Structure formats: C-alpha cells, structure tokens
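Supplementary Methods, section 5.1.

A reviewer requested that the exact input to the structure prediction be made available. We therefore reproduce it here, unchanged from the version used in the analyses.
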Amino acid sequence: MKQENKMFFPHVTVMNALLCLFVVMIHCTGTPYSELSAGTWQHITIFSLNKLLTFSVPAFLFLSGFKLYRDYDIDIWVFYKRRLTKIVVPYIIAALIYILYFFKKGWLDGSFLEYLFLGTISAHFYYVIIAVQLYLLFPLILLLFRKHSIATAVLSAIMTVIFSCFLYQGFWDRFFGQYIFYFVFGMLWKKYELGGKIGKFMPLAVLAYLATAIFHLRMMYFSSFYGANYAFSQIVNIAFVLLSTVLLYVISEKVLIKSKAFCAASTAVSASSYSIYLYHCLLLYILQFDVFTKFSLTCGERFIITLTVLYSVISLYCLLNSYIKRKKIPN
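The structure derived from this sequence is encoded token-by-token as follows.
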C-alpha cells in the first residue's frame, strides 16, 4: 500500500469553503427560525434559507469521499494517524471546551462518555461522529469499491434510503448508514470524472433542482407548522441533497474558480474550515446566553448582530491563520 498522494483541485477548495460558511448560516438562522411567527414572510424566508442549506453536511461527506479516493492508494497507518491528529484530537479538545462551558452554565444532564462518543454536547458534532465511522471503514469501502464500484454505490444507496426512512429516531442520526451513499457518491464522482460529463445535462439538473427544492420546502413547511402529511420526505430529501451537491460542485468548478479573489478567500476559509465548524456554535451560545440577555433586542436585531459578529470573527481568524502559515514557510 502506498502513502498519501495529495493533489490540488481549486474548485474543491472553493466548495469546501462555501459549505463551511453555509453551515454557519444554518446555525445563525436557528434562533429566528424558532422564534418568528409561522406564516409571516420573515419566518418563511428564514425557514427556506435554513432548509436550502441543510445539504451542506452530506456534501461535506461527498467531498471527503472525493478527496480520499483522489488522494490515497493507501497506507492504512498513515491514513489513520492523520485522521487521529487532524480530526479526532481537535474534536476531543473542542468537546471538552463545550463541556466546560455547559458545566459552568449548569446545563449538563448527560454522561461524559455520551457527550464525547455521541457528540451530544452540541448538535453539530454529529458530523464528526459520522465522519469518524466512515474513516474507520474507509479501507474496507475502498477495497469493495475498487472491485465493484457500481455495486458498492448501489448497496450504499440502499443503506442510506433504508436507514433514513426507517431508523432516524434517537441517536440513529449519528449512524453512518444514513450518510454512507453521499461518501461513496463522492468516490464514484471522482472515479468516473462525472464533473466533466454532466455539462450537457446541466439544464435538466437545474430544472430538477428547482422543482425538487420548491416541492420539498413547501411540503416541509406545511408539515412542520400546519400538520400536513409529507410521505416519502426522506426520499425527496436524498434527491434534494444530491442535486444541491452536484450543482454546487459544477458552479464551483465552472464559474467560481475563475475569480482569483474568490479563490484566495476560499483557500483561507477552507484551511480553517474544521476549526470554524468545531467552534462557531460556541460563539453562538456566548452571544445568545451571555451577551444578548443583557440587552432588550428584537429577533431581527439579534440575527443581524449574530451574522455580523460570526462572519467578522471568521474572517479575522482566517486572515490570521493564513498570515501565520505564510510566516512559517521559508523564503
């Protein structure tokens, strides 16, 4: 088995950066989503923005599958060592910081092991738990994929459909089976270079996305707030995620990388994306429970301040991180 062989794909960096910022927006819209009155244009707008971006975490898994299939022939021990140092250790440190913050607030009501191994101390940690499961399984997935790529993709799709439709209560949202197809789809996308073959189908893909997104948003809204029955919602959601991921990939590859400034900004954000993902909710908690409680602010004012503070902090952090990395590179 060979060791890691990194290659640079600027559109993947752009897509990764956008997904990171989308996840932050999802959580920024969480409070107004729950506070605004259903049926108002403000609530419908926030709801739509929130739900339109929920494909981001599955899309991260798509990129993981894409990059791992692209980069590795694979030295298993090098692979696991890198995941341990780059993913698991930073997660453990972040989880401990969240636990300390919640302990200070007197909000802890579960066990330490549950918080750590299930990622329940903060809801967004579920992605890390899923990613670690897929990393552990990756050598096996890669072996099967190399021998029978289409069969592996079909099997993973069946698993995702079954677990999404029938096993989504409790902690099942932290089980890799609900998300494995997105990961394998990324591998499939890279193996067959589907990005370069989808061009002639893009008008159809855009129409399919618009139809799926409008239908999905409408049905979710009426189901959530007016008690309407939304049969096969998980199936439609899978289609929505896949279409959203494909469109963002193509837009990143064909359009966004043409801007040097956009690529430079994306590189800075992407390099810091995991830290941003881990800690942005902590800043949200501090704003919501330590700052806003001292003032009498409307929901809209809190939302604007939250967006301004979070994206400003992210920008400063990315600039500082990029500066430090440049200083470390010898002339």
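The first helix runs from residue 10 to 28. These observations are discussed further in the main text.
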